[in-house]
Amino acid sequence: MEMTKNWQKWSFAVSLIGLFIAQLSCAPDPGEALNDRKRRENEDEIKAYIAKNNLNAVKDDVTGLYIAKTKDVPTGQVPAVGDEVQYYFLQERLDGLVVDSSETAAKKPGIVTIGAPTPGVITNRLYTGLQLLKEGEEAIVLAPYDPTDNKSGNLLLPAYTPVRYDIKVLSVRTEEEQIQDYLVAKGLTAAEKTASGLRFLLTKAYPDSALVKTGQTAKVKYTGRLLNGNQFDASVDGSDWSVGTGAVIPAWDEAFVKMRVGEKATIVLPSSLGYGQAGSSTKIPPYAPLTFEMEIVSSK
Known about the structure:
Blueprint lengths: L1 H25 L7 H19 L5 E2 L6 E6 L12 E10 L4 E4 L8 E4 L10 H7 L7 E6 L19 E11 L1 H11 L6 E2 L5 E6 L12 E10 L4 E12 L7 H7 L7 E6 L20 E10 L1
Antiparallel strand pairs: 1-2, 2-6, 3-4, 3-5, 3-7, 6-7, 8-9, 9-12, 10-11, 10-13, 12-13
């Protein structure tokens, strides 16, 4: 009888130990970071979603996104740094609740420059997904939670929520292509293209007037715009600028010495002749081609 009781106690103890070990194996690693654990859980949710919806999705090992192309364009242009991408998108949770979208019906696509996404305007998950698609392609992109996504953490899209994006890439345009599109749209195709990439079109000539020279100070009236028409600067009465000393953007130094006092010109320039990959203030974004209308008032 005593042996039976001892056996029962021993058996019960072994069972408790086994249950404790099983619980430990199911519990999250206490040393695992919360974001890492949630991302692992997101992976499981996404895989279950793919299986349930029979999606032919492939994981991109670099970004961690799952891509299921619904329209493949093998010859489409691949987005590169400095390119402008126009796109439509629909963002929803995996339970089907729509969270955000572009104004597709109004034909107002989202626009982003690769290498210079605007925080608060485009999420990192959408921005990353766009770079995995070519011009003309459409895809379903499934993305685990991204802690940099400032649009998460609310009632509509709680933190640590995986999402689905339905993306359509309308166009991918290099700076050169953007400039060419602008010249055609504005009837400026007669503009001279210099070795630097500057487009220069004299719109009012004074052949008998004095040519502006390096080292002089030129008084210039001007209006500067982005290619979408947004004005970022202007001088109605004219401002004084040193010519050829690097006091102005390279496009201006080049354009000034092609003009005479009293002449007017329109120039269109790539960002390499303007404000480059940094942009300027909040009005001129990085990698922005620009256009100026300018008039030389005087030079001395």
